[in-house]
Model the fold of this input.
Amino acid sequence: MSDIKHHLTDQLLMAYSAGTLPEAFDLIVAAHLSMCDACRAAAESFDATGGALIDDLASADLSDDSFAATMRLIEDAPMLTAPKPRKKGVLPAPVQDFVGGDLESVKWRSIGMGVKQAIIPTEKDATARLLYIPAGCAVPDHGHRGTELTLVLQGAFQDETDHFGPGDIEVADEDLFHTPVADIGEDCICLAATDAPLRFRSLLPRLAQPFLRI
Amino acid sequence: MEHLDISENGLPAHAKRRVMGADMRPQSPKGSRVPDAKIQSTQDWADHILRIRTKDQAAFKELFAHFAPRVKGFLIKSGADEALAEECTQEVMATIWRKAEMFDPSRAAVSTWIYTIARNRKIDMLRKRRRPEPEDLPWGPEAEPDAEDTFSMQQETQRLGEAIRALPEKQRQLVEKAYFGDLSHSEIAEETGLPLGTIKSRIRLALDRLRHQMK
Done:
């Protein structure tokens, strides 16, 4: 995936490493890292920074039997090995974990004009959803409350800012109003995450309108 | 891979050999090891994990003495109370033992690896689900990490740690707050002055190697 042109910001990578992002953002960052070695290397560098900091951190006193208690935990539990790599799908591994499988497990609902979406259940401080945009179709003009991240999983789309292909992630703040249009060749599937205000969430089950507002 | 010029690192050739999984002679003179863990190099800790793979409890005890109090300090800073921090610290340390096989010394330093395990435990304390992680790049006995890669990775991490320690106090505090405090990340990433360049390219090389092996 060396064709990736649009990457995560250092700000997001650092927050991911620090563990301070909402779950929906953690998910889309993990999905992008699964596709992009450049960002993965950057993310692991931020992890190394966290490691250096923890190494210098003031110690806390342990309870007296801390080591013995840890050894008891170890005795009761088997050694762990790396999980088997999953079969490659359209959805990156961390997304498959949330969806419970690849595309065939996604429960789409139409939001009008051929566009479909599927909300991925996460903690409520941000929202993640899969978007299905038929080839050549447009997602209606919309603006954002807060930050919206859009990761292309299949196909490509074009908006006012640039062209986004597989693995590319668009980081849009609230200033951006855009009309993403899927490329002609292939249906476009994206993962999007937004930290839009909660008051819109209750409207989500209704069809197109709330989507336009996010 | 014998052309590595290690003289500039000021380390003897055996330091490089010691991190190889296949060459794990118990040659480290335990008695001469200074117990103050601050003196331990990242290289030593990688060596410890390789020993823990063979269920070496003495190595684990040394690692525990250094890292467990820091992990607990980190969890308390993250908002856990004493009892919860103690419980989670024990779980983190047990996870380190159980995952020793999965540690790849050509891709991360031990402090990095332990940090990610502790951070994930912290997030799991707060959430119902496990934190989303990127797809694993598998490696195993058949893909033993290259000794030179390992050596360089550990060196780069050590240098990164030294560079962070050498940051002006104000900047260093900013970085600490980004990781351990509630400070928003907005301006932090740009202003921290973190020297991440070499370690980034080092990790990139390791990833390229793994991707190549998977083909």
The longest strand of chain A covers residues 127-133.
